Structure of GDSL family lipase:
Amino acid sequence: MAKAVSACILLSLFITTPVQAAKVLILGDSLGASYGMSEQVGWVALLQKKLPEHEFTNGSVSGETTAGGLRRLPALLDSVAPDLVVVELGGNDGLRGFPPTQLKNNLIQIITLAKNSGAKVLLTEIMVPPNYGPRYTQKFTQVYQEIAKDEEIALIPFFMQEIAPYPELMQRDGIHPNEKAQEKIATWMQPWIEKALTQ
């Protein structure tokens, strides 16, 4: 009986133990920077509301390439000291036709810097439009799959796959998601971030 009571007490303590607060850095481009709208209504801000026990820093910049993200990352790591870095970069590399080898090299350096700082890393898959040709689009997509495998990190499926086919969720430019889409993106990202923070 005493053992059963002790087990119940321990279980109760485990259940009621609060989740440890973590610092999350989003390193992205215009998709993360809430292009065309206030940052307060973007998916990163919505994640902050969904996960108020954690602290989110949006380090996304519209037009950013992997090379630009790599240059900015050391200062962000110093100022934020994140527990988790979510990398959402590569779209602008693809739109500019940069070589997949350059994309891969930059992403690996970003991931290495983040890991060396003590942070966990999540990589968001990025895809380019099919009009870039099957050879380039395939090589581009493979970069993310190869990195996730080699670096042993989780690869978040590209959230725009669930947004781009629906005009009502897109801005007039046909590239960026609109305000209506932000909740869907936040819901898409949330379980991946929660899982990374509890592992």
Q: What stands out?
A: The helical segments are 2-16, 43-50, 66-80, 91-95, 100-116, 134-151, 179-198. The chain has seven helices and five strands. The chain has one domain: 21-196. Residues 4-17 have pLDDT under 50 and may be disordered.
